[in-house]
Design goal:
heterodimer, A: Cytochrome C Oxidase, Chain A, 63% helix, B: alpha/beta, Immunoglobulin-like, elongated, binds protoporphyrin IX containing FE, binds copper (II) ion, transmembrane (chain B), membrane (chain B), transport (chain B), oxidoreductase (chain B), Copper_CuA (chain B)
């Protein structure tokens, strides 16, 4: 498995001798610099999930503090450290690595009929930047913890907890670097390594989403890195880029930060949209509705998404023309997003819907995303945003989108592809329990926050006005429910991975290429590369789904 | 079901959804009371969005639930659904609907923002010559030294063009009252340049045009009065402004909305909206009370530390206990 040769011939490697061998990876192989894209994908997923649990515990601790108006459970500066690391870890070490690194690496080569990513070593290197980033963030607690929120606006970030703040910057720069490496890899892989028989309009929508995501990451991430490195200089070497008394400007940092960080929300959501477009048609047994519209709307989102960042800065002293321009551009993003939602609903319409756990999470996502999207439109309009900016309304909104939109999607993906990744089925009863608890918990935690914000509760506070205590307690109960909801999933994954019933190559009778290999797929994925004879979603026209566990594998 | 024509059913559903949405838009009660001219504008706009959002929410969630129920896999049925891959008119339709809604909301929001003064911060200086200044001076500054006002006016010349200025109706008018607002960890200091009053709470007269010149001594803070629906960051190194007309006498919270340190949550104070007569009374009592008023105002607050700054007014300041404890322990 050398670095891929990028000529089309590379995909016509001669069949590997003998039978396809199942990967006999031992557990410790997952702790090494392994360059198999499937190992890397699983490494990403597992590491990200561990960080999810850690950041989730931080959230539960924060919500415990917020059960009462006073800061009586923890010191307010510890609260701020938890807040900062919760947000940072959730974004940079859970959603992004799980959705892009995990599913992207695992699925893209399988879906396009390639033996690996274009640059396997770069791929492994990109993964291995993540553990030190996590260690830096967690280690920062020994130095008081970064205090300034995941946005780290100066001057606050320059004057509090300097060592911890520097560690935070290094951590984010590391994951940013990882994301740039990953993006280059995805673009080259999808461009150059599709099986020759696969045309662009037969590319699975998940891969389209990865193209859009990678473009966006390539354009925006360097800007964040630049901003953060200037900030690092301000903190440690006495420069004054963002220090007004040294001739700097605090608002410039906000522009640099949001130029990346607004697109970052699309980085999180676009791959999830891709997962949705794969899961729904399979379990609804219908072709995806509006393939082209979905593919192009991903690209539209990634382009328009680069021009909306100032909607985070309507109160930051931005010039009036910017407020107009960015109100309009923000609202425009609602159109391609709406197209996707409608297309998924239309895919359900007239299907034969199977209520698998994967489908439940996919539909749950649809429902939550409709809510989060509508509150997002209200936030895009400057006059209303002025009122609720930096309040719990925003916290409610972005958790609907990030939890309801991203986490639900990752769960849907796990239930859908776990059989492919491990060769075993997950337990559906535990899966349904997981869904019900998560759905109730998410709504209970985050719905009341909208009202809190509108009524006057600012965000990022360890103490609040006693008038807000009732709704806060509801949210805290919700957070505990969410904490518990992970247990059935954890038990399910651990138990089924070793003992679950065997899955077979194609348990869902799906038509995309990853289901033409045995589960789990052998090293280099296929003995003979599959030929594409039909589109990825042609359900209901009598195509026999591949059943690659049988000896017929080589003809799949 | 078979007997009822689909178009009739659609019509009925449409009417019901519309009625529900209109009702929700008027009766949701999600926002706190309105206490400024701007609040009315924002709320009307929000209510329109609530109507639209409720309708979309009901239609889409309804469609999802209906599909889940109607198109679930029946026992023993292993066939696939009908292979419908797209429908151009339908897709054009649901691209057009959100596009129209979004353009409508965008236009409306620009209009509201204009009315609120979001597009003309700092413009009043250009037109502030003329009789208005003199008028305000005899109205309000009768018992305090006039030079202070000049000082305030001169300051405004250098103020940045950021924040909320006058609404189109008030554009060109000099504000009835100007207050210098300074944010610092973890308190707001309000200085009345025309009378030299310094306070930890904001006092303003109802139904008059008030201009806040907002600055920060240390980190970014954000001045928010939920009942006014107005918020403006206090940015170190830059002056921003917030101009409003409070409409309803009463006491409202002033909240800091931007993370400004450990005790950010404790950075709360009050704005007291007086009737104009009460306001005069309050002001006279404060002017009479302040013993070293002249010295205090003569000093340039920007050159003082927080402790010096707070010292002359510490009794009068009404700072949250957390923050006061924190301030004193820090210095
Ligand atoms: C157990 C579920 C969760 C709970 C109870 C929870 C709770 C909270 C709370 C209380 C805050 C502080 C809000 C504020 O004051 O601004 C917060 C902030 C945040 N959360 Fe979560 N959260 C959860 C899951 C997630 C997930 C899955 C993400 C995914 C990306 C996420 C991303 C964030 C971000 C970005 C912030 C902002 C941090 C900052 O302001 O610096 N959270 N969360
Ligand atoms: Cu503050
Ligand atoms: Cu604050």
């Amino acid at each position: 498995m050398a670095q891929a040769n990028l000529s089309p011939e590379a995909t016509k490697t001669p069949p590997i001798e003998g039978h396809p061998h199942l990967p006999d990876w031992k557990w410790y192989d997952y702790f090494t610099f392994n360059i198999d894209h499937k190992v890397i994908g699983i490494q990403y997923l597992v590491l990200a999930f561990i960080f999810y649990l850690i950041a989730g515990l931080m959230a539960v601790a924060m919500r415990t503090e917020l059960a009462t108006p006073d800061s009586d459970f923890m010191d307010p500066s510890l609260y701020n450290a938890l807040l900062t690391n919760h947000g940072t870890i959730m974004i940079f070490l859970w959603i992004v690595p799980a959705a892009i690194g995990g599913f992207g690496n695992y699925l893209v080569p399988l879906m396009i009929g390639a033996r690996d990513m274009a640059f396997p070593k770069l791929n492994a290197l990109a993964f291995w930047l993540n553990p030190p980033a996590g260690a830096l963030l967690l280690g920062s607690f020994l130095f008081g913890g970064a205090q300034a929120g995941w946005t780290s606006y100066p001057p606050l970030s320059v004057i509090t907890a300097n060592t911890a703040q520097s560690m935070w910057i290094l951590a984010v720069v590391l994951v940013g670097t990882s994301s740039i490496m990953g993006s280059v890899n995805f673009l080259v892989t999808i461009w150059k390594m599709r099986v020759p028989s696969m045309k662009w309009d037969q590319l699975p929508l998940f891969c389209w989403a990865m193209v859009a995501t990678s473009f966006l990451a390539l354009f925006s991430t360097p800007v964040l890195a630049a901003g953060l490195i200037l900030l690092l200089f301000d903190i440690n070497f006495g420069t004054g880029f963002f220090q007004p008394d040294a001739g700097g400007n605090v608002v410039v940092y906000q522009h640099l930060f949001w130029f990346y960080s607004h697109p970052a929300v699309y980085l999180m959501i676009l791959p999830i949209f891709g997962i949705m477009s794969e899961v729904i048609p399979v379990h609804a047994r219908k072709p995806i509705f509006g393939y082209k519209a979905i593919a192009y709307s991903s690209l539209t989102i990634s382009i328009v998404g680069l021009f909306v960042w100032v909607h985070h800065m309507f109160t930051s002293g931005t010039p009036p023309w910017m407020r107009i321009f960015f109100t309009i551009s923000t609202l425009i993003v609602a159109v391609p997003t709406g197209i996707k939602i409608f297309s998924w609903v239309a895919t359900l319409w007239g299907g034969k819907i199977r209520f698998t756990s994967a489908m439940l999470f996919a539909v749950g996502l649809l429902s939550m995303f409709v809510f989060g999207g509508l509150s997002g439109v209200t936030l895009g309009t400057a006059p209303f945003d002025i009122h609720v900016h930096d309040t719990y309304y925003v916290v409610g909104h972005f958790h609907y989108v990030l939890f309801g939109g991203s986490v639900f999607g990752i769960y849907a993906g796990i239930y859908h592809w776990f059989p492919k990744m491990t060769g075993r089925m997950l337990n559906e009863t535990l899966g349904r329990l997981h869904f019900v608890l998560t759905f109730i918990g998410t709504n209970l935690t985050f719905a009341p926050m909208h009202e809190l914000g509108m009524q006057g509760m600012p965000r990022r506070v360890a103490m609040y006005d006693p008038q807000f205590v009732g709704l806060n307690q509801l949210a805290t109960i919700g957070a505990f429910t969410l904490g518990i909801s992970v247990l059935p999933m954890l038990i399910n994954v651990i138990w089924s991975w070793s003992r679950g019933p065997k899955a077979g190559g194609n348990p869902w009778n799906a038509l995309t290429l990853e289901w033409t290999t045995p589960s789990p797929p052998p090293v280099e994925n296929w003995t003979i590369l599959p030929a594409v004879t039909h589109g990825p979603y042609e359900y209901g026209v009598g195509i026999q789904p591949p059943q690659p566990d049988q000896p017929a594998l080589d003809e799949a | 079901m078979k007997q009822i024509p689909a178009s009739l059913l659609t019509l009925v559903i449409g009417v019901v959804v519309t009625l529900i949405s209109l009702w929700v838009g008027q009766n949701h009660g999600w926002l706190p009371e309105q206490a400024s001219e701007q609040a009315v504008l924002v709320d009307d706009f929000f209510n329109v969005m609530v109507v639209i959002a409720t309708a979309l929410f009901l239609v889409v969630q309804g469609a999802i639930l209906f599909a889940l129920f109607q198109f679930r896999q029946r026992q023993g049925d292993t066939t696939d659904g009908e292979p419908i891959e797209g429908n151009l008119p339908l897709e054009a339709f649901w691209t057009a609907i959100p596009a129209v809604i979004v353009i409508g909301l965008g236009t409306y929001s620009v209009y509201v923002f204009q009315e609120m003064g979001g597009f003309n911060p700092g413009l009043q200086e250009a037109n502030s010559q003329g009789t208005m200044v003199a008028q305000v001076m005899d109205e309000q500054v009768s018992d305090v030294g006039a030079p202070l006002v000049d000082h305030g006016a001169a300051d405004k010349q250098v103020a940045g063009n950021y924040g909320f200025g006058a609404s189109p109706m008030k554009e060109g008018n000099t504000p009835d009252l100007t207050v210098e607002v300074k944010g610092l960890q973890y308190a707001w200091i309000f200085t009345y340049p025309d009378s030299g009053i310094v306070d930890g709470e904001l006092h303003v007269p109802a139904n008059q045009d008030v201009l806040l010149n907002i600055s920060s001594q240390d980190v970014i803070h954000s001045f928010w009065v939920p009942q006014f629906r107005l918020k403006q960051d206090a940015i170190p190194g830059e002056e921003t402004e917030l101009r409003f007309v409070a409409t309803k006498p009463g006491t409202y919270s002033v909240v800091c909305a931007e993370l400004c340190g450990a005790y950010h949550g404790g950075m709360r104070t009050q704005v007291i909206v007086h009737t104009p007569e009460d306001f005069e009374q309050w002001r006279e009592s404060r002017v009479a009370q302040a013993p070293h008023q002249d010295e205090t105002v003569a000093a340039n607050p920007a050159e003082m530390t927080a402790t010096d700054y707070l010292a002359p007014v510490s009794q009068a300041l009404n700072i949250h206990t957390h923050s006061l404890a924190h301030l004193t322990s820090e210095q």
